[in-house]
Design a protein that fits this description.
Elements lengths: L10 E7 L5 H14 L4 E5 L5 H9 L8 H25 L3 E5 L2 H10 L4 H7 L8 E6 L2 H10 L10 H13 L5 E5 L4 H14 L7
Parallel strand pairs: 1-3, 1-4, 2-3, 4-5
Helix pairs in contact: 1-8, 2-3, 4-5, 4-7, 6-7
The chain binds thymidine-5'-diphosphate.
The site of thymidine-5'-diphosphate has 13 residues, from helix 4.
Length: about 210
């Protein structure tokens, strides 16, 4: 049983993990479940559809078009807009924000691209700290297989060697609000564990 209703200032839940772990499927399921309980949920994602996000998507086919530092700036600027225009207003309005990727993605992906992951996290101090981060884990080989089997080409961020480095960086993060869930299990059991993590936000002693 939940001990309290969602507070007025909202809740921020970030979904992280390498590509192909099923973040968007799991977010949709959680959002539907929360809405069925009368909660006001905002689903969002990064990269956003801002001009920065569009430039980031151009890099999927030509990552060499900018330096690692310039690439990092694009993700940070995209997030600054996201926080200012969508995330903060929604939290202030008491909504539950579910974001598909947040600053751990930057630390892991741009960290895997040669930059310092700790410094990247520090550069993200402007972004509100999430109440919960669901980190979906999966062997990079399986993730690459899933991406290819759904007809997708591996974009420039998703090459296997890079995914391995990204995965290792995700494994190195250890904040108390971070929950790791094995995403190679069936969708329904991953979802069950996500809901468990959600309930723990309200009654942690039951976990
Ligand atoms: P993805 O979640 O696949 O978005 P979409 O489905 O809209 O293309 O993210 C796109 C890629 O961007 C993904 O391979 C990870 C990468 N990425 C970073 O490198 N750094 C970041 O900060 C974020 C948010 C994403």
């Amino acid at each position: 049983m939940r001990k309290r209703k969602v507070s007025r200032k909202g809740l921020l839940i970030a979904f992280e993990g390498i590509d192909g772990t099923g973040k968007s499927t799991q977010i949709k399921l959680l959002a539907d479940w929360l809405r069925a309980q009368g909660e006001d949920v905002l689903e969002t994602r990064e990269p956003t559809d801002s001009a920065y996000g569009r430039r980031i998507r151009e890099l999927y086919v030509n990552r060499g078009a900018c330096t690692p530092e310039e690439e990092l700036e694009l993700f940070i600027e995209d997030r600054k807009l996201h926080v200012k225009e969508l995330i903060r207003p929604a939290l202030n309005a008491g909504r539950i924000v579910l974001t598909d990727r947040y600053y751990y993605s930057t630390a892991a992906y741009q960290g895997a691209n040669g930059l310092d992951a700790k410094q990247i996290l520090q550069r993200n101090r402007f972004a509100p700290q999430p109440n919960l981060v669901i980190l979906l884990t999966m062997p990079p080989e399986l993730s690459a297989e899933r991406i290819s089997s759904r007809g997708g080409q591996l974009n420039a961020f998703e090459q296997l060697d890079a995914l391995r480095r990204v995965s290792e960086l995700f494994a190195s993060f250890s904040d108390p609000w971070l929950r790791r869930i094995d995403a190679s299990q069936p969708v329904s059991s991953v979802q069950e564990q996500i809901r468990h993590a959600w309930r723990d936000l309200f009654s942690p002693e039951e976990s």
